[in-house]
Amino acid sequence: MRYHVDEHGYYGAYGGAYIPEMLYPNIAQLQADYKTILQDAEFQQEFQQLLADYVGRPTPLYFAQRLSEQYNTRIYLKREDLCHTGAHKVNNTVGQILLAKHLGKKRIIAETGAGQHGVATATVCALMGIECVVYMGAIDIERQAPNVARMKMLGATVVSATSGSKTLKDATNEAIRDWINHPEDTHYIIGSVVGPHPYPDLVARLQSVISEEIKNQLTQKEGRDYPDYVVACVGGGSNAAGAYYHYLDRPEVGIIAVEAAGKGIHSGESAATSALGTPGIIHGSKTLLMQTSDGQITEPYSISAGLDYPGVGPMHAHLFTSGRGEFISVTDDHAMTAGRNLSRLEGIIPAIETSHALAVFEQREFLPEEVVVVNLSGRGDKDLNTYIKYFNL
Amino acid sequence: MNRIDTRFNSKKKIVSIYLTAGYPNLEDTVNIIQKLEQGGADMIEIGLPFSDPLADGPTIQESSTQALQNGMTTQVLFEQLKHIRETVSIPLLLMGYFNPILQYGVERFCEQCALVGIDGLIIPDLPLREYKQHYEEVFQKHGLHMIFLITPQTSEARIRDMDEASNGFLYVVSSASTTGKTTGFSAAQQAYLQRVSSLQLRNRLLVGFGIHDAETFQTATKHTHGAIIGSAFINHLKTEGRKGIASFLQKLRGAS
Q: Model-level pTM?
């Protein structure tokens, strides 16, 4: 069984490029050139330099002593929350802005849900002096005001997506429509391992720096380059794809994906795609998604705006279906409690997305000698309002 | 012979009208189709509404959302069309995004199409490669013409591939845009239409996207076999309902 993408853009039965013809030239160009560009020496030199000096990589792999004692196992946290802009998202946007320059594009578009990817895109556009337009659902604009202000501060134009349910799924639709209307000068920086081939693989490769560093860091700390388990939260799945990447073909490493159960898997307010989804097509990719029996895409719910997506990247759909990945889901309540627990034990306030991954220790036991790496994908500053409301702080 | 081919053999400057099934009201579909035929439309594309229509502008998006709220589904549409061939003889196509068709079951979908008298399918997000590998055979088995789209950015080699895979006609997207643009046709667009018509393709050409009045219809059909009107007709339904469909068609054809 192979877990990386094949030459037609599929992970097992999932992936492909189900796009209208209007997008074909751009997608075909990316398909033909992305690997060559990513492997280009000049690209790599600039990318690595920016990751080191601008993003602040490598991020620490921190042995969480007190958390490990609480759960009687060996827990490491991969500190993506210490990246510039506060989350792993910037690894991808730094890479894609260099790719866009390589392709001679003059304008960048992006979609954003919670605003993290929007901020990371606006940041690299400011850095490179390139025009930036970010699509964001009207409802998300209201509930994520600080990130909207950050994007504007960085010089980006934030466009309200008012179609459909007015959240991430619709922001993505609007970004794709913008690209259809501006095929020549614009590059679309997708924020997760979703969308038509080659995006899932492109974003996974750019995020794979996470597991590459984990390998080096574990070698120094544990004398071997792999953990027993890698744990990450999955919305679309970009931080997870990066954390799993170099371990996909290493059966000695358990892969655990944590999805958002919202108010409970069967509450009607959930975003647990592997449990509730069926195969279908969303945003140009065949994957698991939440839909009606008539094939209409339904609106997910999670307290975390970053996990609030009705699909999952095709890589993850394949990890789930093939049994390579262990998928669990965590409710709002369990995630919030796990977030507070980490804050109090380790002095790290995690993003609510990440809090879902941390809740794994309440749902599942690990042996005392097992090494568990949790990808700490983002910091919790953006979520303070939600934490304040939830805990009456 | 497929009704689409018959129509092209007997008529020039085809007017093909797009409507969203179940819009403005759930039960309007059949009546609007009848009125379109009576008013002189040559062909009809019945749009299967989808929650996430990527290639469509605001007008068709809104009509799709409304139709879904009205209760339109693939099964409801086939029920509505059950007796359509007792009253309507012009070619009927279904146009929809691939996911609802996939969920309905592609084979079952084709069987139902054949049963109610559908002549062709337009599925903008079903790629050529997947179509040829998995679906061409079943579409053809049920006598359904598959229509592919080409755009100003489509290379000549790919246009020829699309022409080879299509039956009935090629859907020529007039500009790099989503549906519903209301600016006129530029010189570059006209040159593009002329270039495509000079390629000696095996299929006829129908131009779509941005055709909304007599002037754009005339320009679009100068070098091609006809045009597809979608958003402009949906706008008509939005403001006038089912009234004035014949005069909408008359105005569109203009002096010709």
A: 0.96
